Amino acid sequence: MTSDLIALSAIGAAILLGAMSPGVSFLLVARTAMSGSKRAALSVAAGMGFGAFVFAVIALAGLHTLLTLVPSLYIGLKVAGGCYLLWLALKMFRRPSNRFSDSAGTEEISASKAFMTGVFTQISNPHTALVFASIFSAALSENIQPVMYIILPTMAFVIDVLWYAVVACLLSTDGPRQAYIKYRKFLDKLSGSVMALLGIRLLLK
């Protein structure tokens, strides 16, 4: 029991640190919070959490072994993920600069669309699945308790949702939103550039 608690603590800390590290997921939640509604940003956060849940499930199911045995599958997933990030970057570059009114400053986006954007963004990098598998392999014993197959994916979901919900709530306040309205053209191009670079990096790595 004690060893399981230690393993869960170590895995939880690793997942939290991974979520907190700057990257595509943080960028998307932050930008949605500043340019859209808090509801949309929280929906993206929920999508990120669901993506983490999926990665935890497939990592426990042995995706690491499958991708190692079938390199072409890993390459295919990377290409698909890189192309998706480039598509997101293109959307940011092509967004009209006059789309928002300075009085409202919000971009209308449905909760379901925001959720699915979060899911697809989270799972766009198959390398994350390997990171999950590595964390689980390092912290868990060979004989995994059946209950862990429920606890670990749920814990990954909760940690990601809570972290990105905090980001969404903080950045959807008036201060960050007014800053976005003032510099939206520059911030859209900066966000698109970072997203494009991450997509290209995923394709070439």
Structural features:
205 residues, mainly alpha
Largest sheet: none
Average pLDDT: 80
Distance between the termini: 40 Å
| Count of helical regions | 9
- Strand percentage lies at under 5%
Order of helices and strands: HHHHHHHHH
How would you classify the quaternary structure?
A: single chain
Number of domains: 1
Low-pLDDT residue spans: 98-105
Structural class: mainly alpha
In words, what does this structure look like?
It contains 9 helices and no strands. It is mainly alpha-helical. The radius of gyration is 18 Å and the shape is globular. Residues 98-105 have low confidence and may be disordered. The protein has one domain (2-204). Helix 2 runs antiparallel to helix 3 (38-60), helix 3 (38-60) packs parallel to helix 6 (111-122) and helix 3 (38-60) crosses helix 7 (127-139).
Entry summary:
With 205 residues, this protein is mainly alpha-helical.
SSE inventory with pairings:
Blueprint: H1 2-20, H2 24-35, H3 38-60, H4 63-69, H5 71-94, H6 111-122, H7 127-139, H8 148-171, H9 174-204
